[in-house]
Amino acid sequence: MYKHSYKFIYLAEDDEDDRILFLEVLREIHPEIVVKVFEDGQRLIDSLHEAENDNPEILFLDINMPCRNGFECLKEIKSRAGYLNMVKIIVFSTSSSMLHIELSYKLGADAYAVKPGSFNELKDLLQEIIAIDWSKVSRSRAEFVLDCKKNKR
User: pTM for the complete prediction?
Assistant: First the structure.
């Protein structure tokens, strides 16, 4: 059914409702995927430094978090060469601001996704993201913003 078999995802999200919804949707579409959740940016960074051999395949990164925001985390992750280069980073925010999208691109995120407003839209978006073959995706501005609605026909 899906092209790829991701096994480990990180979610950095301070909003409890958003975390619960994300986990419910992912459990429904991919119950085999393990998700490690971080409520603030500092915990995320600490975990990435501690677990060099156990990094996620995809990191969903909220922008507005306590301790360190998503941009600060993204900048630090991308400044470190080596083991973190393989982690695909999706900035995952309620903001659709072009300034946020542009900054995310400049800081090296692999994609930007605006959090959908419903369970089904989130389900569509996560299915789209999980189905991406990142080895065949070239990082381009044209494909940077992920939107489950744009692929509906």
Answer: 0.88
Supply the pLDDT for residue 148. Answer: 56
Q: Using CA atoms, how far apart are residues 75 and 129, in angstroms rounded to an integer?
A: 22
The reported pLDDT for the residue numbered 152 is: 41
Which residue(s) pair with 3 in the sheet?
Answer: none
Sheet holding 88-93, edge to edge: 34-38, 8-12, 58-61, 88-93, 111-114, 145-146
Q: Domain residues of the chain, as ranges?
A: 8-146
- Check if the beta carbon of residue 92 is closer than 8 Å to that of residue 115: yes
pLDDT of the residue at 153 = 29
For residue 20, give every residue at least 6 positions away whose Cβ sits within 8 Å of its Cβ, in sequence order, or none. none
Residue 38's alpha-carbon distances to 5, 51, 59, 121, 145, in angstroms, are 22, 14, 11, 23, 23
Q: Which residues pair with 91 in a beta bridge?
A: 61, 112
Continuous H helices in 3-150: 16-29, 41-50, 70-79, 98-107, 119-131
CATH class of the domain at 8-146: alpha beta
**pLDDT tens readout for residues 59-94:** 999 999 999 999 999 999 988 767 677 889 999 999
Q: What is the C-alpha separation between 130 and 124, in angstroms, rounded?
A: 10
